[in-house]
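User: I'll paste a sequence; please echo it back and then give the predicted structure.

Assistant: Echoing your sequence first, then the prediction.
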Amino acid sequence: MTGKSKRRKIKHLMLIMSAYNKADVHPLTFILVGIPGLEAAHVWISIPFCMFYLLALLGNCCLLFIIKTDSSLHEPMYLFLCMLAVADLIVCTTAVPKLLNLFWFHDGVIPFEACLTQVFLIHCCSTMESGFFLAMAFDRYVAICNPLRHSTILTHSVIGRMGLAIILRGTALLSPHPLLLSQFPYCRTNIISHIYCEFMALIKIACAETRILRAYSLIVAFLTGGVDLILIVCSYVLTLHIVFHLPSKDARLKTLGICGSHVCIILVSYTPAFFSFLTHRFGHNVAPHVHIFVANIYLLFPAMVNPIIYGVRTKKIRDRFLKFFSFSKPLN
């Protein structure tokens, strides 16, 4: 064998090994295992998840329909509520159908690209939800503290620009996550001990140095959820200061009722989100099934509760909902 043919053979073997290593460290699929230790109960666990998802779909779709068809609801608070409903629908629809497929048919296989898409949509839209909460808090602040200028400050064009800025912020800050995750080798395993593809779940199985990406995710979490929460708290402190100085007791109670529904939604959304975020990074002693349950509450529960709270607490939406679903006819 000549030296030239030897070189060609060695080059051919190197190409084969390179292709093998690439396939080995970048798997075509990941395997979701569900809730570790509770595999036998997956079918029973799927029942509340399915009910929550259906309620979230029904509630948010009804909310969007009612606000769209009633021109009297085309106000800043309800328009921001529409944006929040869309983000909620995207978050839960990105994860729950695959979750139910895993629980019902034991099919935990998810393509590599689909897994990264799931990571991006869940975290990006969750970041947008935080921004919409801040926008709603700002709307309440202006409506209560400066009611005469509310309609001139929050015009439809301003609301549209605020919504676009929140969307662009989430997209720009979260786009690096799937792009960088796609470059990591996954030579240890392609099994994800979770119900859906989550950023930290993929970080844990990557066999590469991930400190920079972990630090970036912490910075993004602070710049979005952390800063948003601080600003929301500040806005409500200022708002409540004005509320408690209102001369009329009825006006105080009415205003507190409006703010109370918004605060309830913020607590329902932020509490499981921060618990999931912190336990993934610092709660090494938290049982895996506890963390996974909370992570799913973080996805499903706010999406289900948001339209219920606003539907019950907001008279305009409640009356429109009852009118739409009333099948009784007046007697002649």
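The chain has a mean pLDDT of 81. The beta strands are 29-32, 109-111, 191-192.
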